[in-house]
Amino acid sequence: MKILLLGSTGSIGKSTLNCVRRFKDSFELAGLTVNNNIEDLAVQVDEFSVSSVCVCSEEAAEDARKMLPSIIKIFKGKKGLEDIVNETDFDILLNALVGAVGFRPTVAALKRKKRVALANKESLVIGGEIISSLLKEGYGELIPVDSEHSAILQCLNGEDPEAIESITITASGGPFRNKNIEHFNTITPKEALNHPTWSMGNKITIDSSTLINKGFEVIEAHYLFKLPYDRLHVMIHPQSIIHSMVTFQDGAVMAQCGVPDMELPIQYALSYPKRLPIMGTRLDLVETGSLTFAEPDFNRFPCLKLCIEAGKQGGTLTTVLNAANEIAVQQFLKGGISFNQIAEVIGQALNKHQNQKVGTVEQIEEIDALTRNQVLKSIKDIKH
Q1: 81, 270, 279, 284: least CB-packed within 10 angstroms?
Q2: Are 67 and 42 in contact (CB under 8 A)?
């Protein structure tokens, strides 16, 4: 199987490369994409002998041309992400991009009737209705890579979807689940980037600290498993051993458990429905000891509440949600706003937006760009 890997130098990308190394006879890489990490890209190109790459940064693309063999085809910029999907021979697209930039490549791959192993939450958050329509019309296949949605998929393997009563998505709670809420306004980027369980990129780690990532995952689950929001729940589970649970109409609850390691859901998405072996640490429940659970506190995590409310309303509101969050996180990491102001900025953007029915990719992109500009302006006003 030929894999086109978008985001090869991030944590998901590097774990995907481990899966390819593990099963060289089953998988090969058709192409790789990075933002601007040309040094790591050059090493990957040499190891995996890919013929096509995309460098999202225009400046870095020039450096790539100098460093990579002349036989390598180089795409560049945001448009290059869509072009490499349309012009490369592959069987599976593994989309490990972060942010709305991952949406168009997902759509392009589905239109080519390819399997999409999706780690890019934003594809479904901003364009779930469009993607659902494509899948319903027989375009491609979508397999989740997120550990939570992979867990749900595994629990549902062989089950009748009509028998599902509810789905529970677990969350570690991030670094601030026990922090005094009165001190949230003093949280620094360094503190927010110190996740207790997972090693991830900066943006995703901040999303985990605000729990907006769980809100995104609820929206994803709505589209992936066709359940209304009142049957989708979030539960705080600090040990991150149970990745998600499915409750059936007869009262049975099925949970997928395992040590916190992304290689399992990545490999499962690539080999689905088969299971391939992974040597490594196994779950030892005796060593783990007790497992604890709690309801999420919306006062502590207002971003989670904003997310679920936007998801319920649907339309273009979730595009605004994601765009506002991306800008707010960028500004927080730069010291432009406080941790508490992330939710304030998102809430203001949602309140100002006149919701529309989703129609086209272009419509989503226009609203995305408009929201980013408006949020940046509002943040400048806050600072003055």
Answers
A1: 279
A2: yes
d(CA 36, CA 89): 24
Question: Residue 175 and residue 339: Cα distance in Å, rounded?
Answer: 13
Residue 134: the pLDDT is 97
Distance CA 47, CA 60 (A): 20
Which of the 8 DSSP states describes residue 294?
B
Residue 9, pLDDT > 90, answer: yes
Cα 354 from Cα 371, distance rounded (Å): 12
How many CB atoms are closer than 10 A to CB 99?
18
Residue 383 has pLDDT above 70, yes or no: no
> How far is residue 354's CA from residue 372's CA, in Å, rounded to a whole number?
15
Per-residue pLDDT tens for 240-253? Answer: 999 999 999 999 99
User: H helices within the chain, ranges in order?
Assistant: 11-22, 38-48, 58-67, 77-87, 103-111, 121-136, 147-156, 189-192, 202-210, 212-225, 263-271, 285-288, 302-313, 317-334, 339-352, 361-383
Instruction: Confirm if 28 and 91 have CB atoms less than 8 A apart.
Output: no
Sheet holding 253-257, edge to edge: 232-236, 164-171, 242-248, 253-257
> CA-CA distance, 208 to 325, in Å (whole number)?
12
CA distances from 79 to 56, 59, 117 (A): 8, 15, 20
Residue with tokens 């979730």: 318
CA distance 213 to 179: 19
Pairing verdict, β 253-257 and 242-248: antiparallel
**All structural domains of the chain:** 2-144 (3.40.50.720), 147-301 (no CATH), 315-384 (1.10.1740.10)
This prediction's pTM: 0.95
Rounded to whole angstroms, how far apart are CA atoms 91 and 52?
A: 15
* C-alpha to C-alpha distance for 226 and 333, rounded to whole angstroms: 35
Backbone angles phi, psi at 29, to 5 degrees: -95, 125
